[in-house]
Amino acid sequence: MASFLSDGTIRRFLRARNWSTEQATKALRETVKWRRQYRPDTICWEDIAEREDEARRVYIADYRDTAGRAVFVSKSSIKCKTSVKEQIKQLVYNLEILANSSDGEQEEESVVWLTDFRGWTLTTTPLSLARESICIVQNHYPGLIALAILSNPPRIFESFWKIVRHFIEARLKERAKFVYTDSPESHRIVADMFDLDKLEAAFGGRNTAAFDMDKYAARMKRADQARGASNGGRSK
């Protein structure tokens, strides 16, 4: 737990709570309690259910944006094969890696979250999953997300967003941007933020390479080693 309470983590919590030491301390205590119960630092690549399929749906990109921030990718077009519980575990696993890799590099807001909403339907994201995911991101990993890019959401998503946005804190809500690959303005935004030769075609980039599972698995295992994660008795 001592490694979690780094200077970078404390700064992120302070900024997320407008430098209120009282609120930041309360939030940190709640997160420490959650971490003792959930044990996110023990989750490793081998713990992720259906990992070879799920990693194609949700993954940490092997490139960064033009500001040097890590890129976290979600693709709604790929059908999920696991339970809400397993999806939350995978989210936490990725957040742990992102938080660990960013700590010390940047003081806050070191991740850009890219979501491809093509093929999204009301059954794609259960409200319970959305609500718990938002809670975890903003309560236990505050100040990590610099920008959330929602790419090509269908019109039906507007109704879902009107509900979900009530669960999102103002600071995080301001970081959500809607972009559309057929919009010249959106294309300019994306082109300014990313190397289009590396960015996936789904987001308006020129990268059409197939997902290399072997390379990704090896990268995740190296990330596990770097943060000292090991299976601490969790059921796989």
What does this protein structure show overall?
Residues 46-211 form the CRAL-TRIO domain. This is CRAL-TRIO domain-containing protein. One of its GO terms (molecular function) is phosphatidylinositol transfer activity. The chain has a 5-stranded mixed beta sheet, with helices on both faces. The chain has 236 residues and is of the alpha/beta class. The radius of gyration is 17 Å and the shape is globular. β3, α5 (127-140) and β4 (145-151) form a beta-alpha-beta unit. The chain has helices at 7-16, 21-38, 51-57, 84-102, 127-140, 157-164, 170-173, 184-193, 213-227, and strands spanning 58-64, 70-75, 111-116, 145-151, 176-179.
Distance N to C terminus? 23 Å
Enumerate the spans where pLDDT stays under 50 for 5 or more consecutive residues.
232-236
Q: Taking all residues together, what is the mean pLDDT?
A: 91
| Strand count | 5
Write the H/E string, N to C. Answer: HHHEEHEHEHHEHH
Q: Describe the biggest sheet?
A: 5 strands, mixed
Rg calculated over all Cα atoms? 17 Å
Protein name: CRAL-TRIO domain-containing protein
Pfam families: CRAL_TRIO
Domain CRAL-TRIO: 46-211
GO molecular function: phosphatidylinositol transfer activity
